[in-house]
Specification:
Elements (H helix, E strand, L loop, with lengths): L1 H24 L4 E6 L9 H8 L16 H9 L4 E8 L4 E8 L2 E7 L5 E4 L4 E3 L10 E4 L11 H9 L1 H6 E6 L5 E5 L5 E5 L4 H14 L1 H4 L4 E5 L7 E4 L12 H4 L2 H18 L1
Parallel strand pairs: 1-3, 4-7, 7-8, 10-11
Antiparallel strand pairs: 2-3, 4-5, 5-6, 8-9, 9-10, 11-12
Length: 273
């Protein structure tokens, strides 16, 4: 038993030494990239490799003990093309990179700035010529006080309600923060105010479309405001102009006019005589 214990201790000491030397000299064997959505139009496997900043040809010369997985994850999460990333090192030395491409919910056209996409959390995605996604369009003036992300609850409601989605063509934001909806019904715009009471505002708008416009005419109003609680305010397209006060016939005819008329009549009678 004593001899067996001594042999086992010697073996473990030798094995640990050899294993430590092998681990210190062990390198990565490769990299495998997996996309949660293989059909994503925003990013592909080649794009992820570029975002990693790693040359696949030199990856096999990187030591496993020196490779920083957390740093690579942070680099991928900072990319505007990726929504989530997870990097692990497999037992065979292969670097497994699992990423979730960005899912845009709207395209933003800000005055004087390049257009961009945003996802559900408000993260920006650069708009490139190589792809185009059919998503709602946000147009207007956006800043730190009224960012484009404040419209996300409204867009989420629109996308989750097919009836409302069919009604809305474009969502814009004015410099004062008022949200303006351009409906598919041509002839007017809808002043939505802010993103509060979204369901109530659309219910009021549908009631206005159902009960008022068929009777008044679809081109009667140029602006329909649902920003106030419990009411819909519409502005006529043709503004009523107050009539100009014009002088009457009696006001134009005075005493001198009467005398002149009498003189003209007398002269005419004398000529006839």
């Amino acid at each position: 038993m004593c001899v067996l214990c001594i042999v086992m201790v010697a073996w473990f000491g030798f094995a640990l030494t050899v294993t430590a030397r092998m681990a210190s000299a062990d390198t990565l064997t490769g990299m495998k990239v997996t996309l949660s959505d293989p059909n994503s139009r925003f990013v592909n496997v080649a794009d992820v490799i570029v975002e990693c900043g790693i040359d696949p040809d030199t990856l096999t010369r990187c030591l496993r003990k020196d490779f920083d997985l957390r740093k690579l994850e942070h680099r991928l999460l900072a990319s505007d093309k990726l929504q989530d990333a997870n990097v692990t090192l497999l037992s065979n030395g292969c670097l497994a990179v699992d990423v979730t491409p960005m899912v845009p919910v709207a395209r933003v056209f800000d005055k004087g700035k390049p257009s961009y996409y945003i996802n559900a959390s408000g993260k920006r995605i650069s708009a490139e010529l190589r792809y185009h996604i059919d998503v709602p369009v946000l147009v207007g003036s956006f800043d730190s006080v009224h960012p484009a992300s404040r419209l996300l609850p409204l867009l989420d409601y629109i996308s989750s309600h097919p009836t409302v989605s069919a009604m809305v063509a474009t969502v814009t934001q004015e410099s004062d923060g008022n949200i303006i909806i351009v409906p598919n019904i041509v002839g007017h715009v809808v002043n939505f105010g802010d993103t509060s009471r979204v369901e109530e505002k659309f219910a009021n708008l549908r009631a206005f479309y159902r009960n008022v416009l068929p009777a008044k005419g679809w081109l009667t109003y140029d602006t329909v405001a649902v920003k106030w609680s419990g009411q819909v305010v519409a502005t006529r397209r043709e503004k009523v102009v107050a009539p100009v006060a014009l002088p009457t016939v009696e006001e134009q005819t005075g005493e001198l006019d009467i005398n002149d008329n009498a003189t003209v009549a007398k002269s005419t009678d004398e000529e006839n005589a």
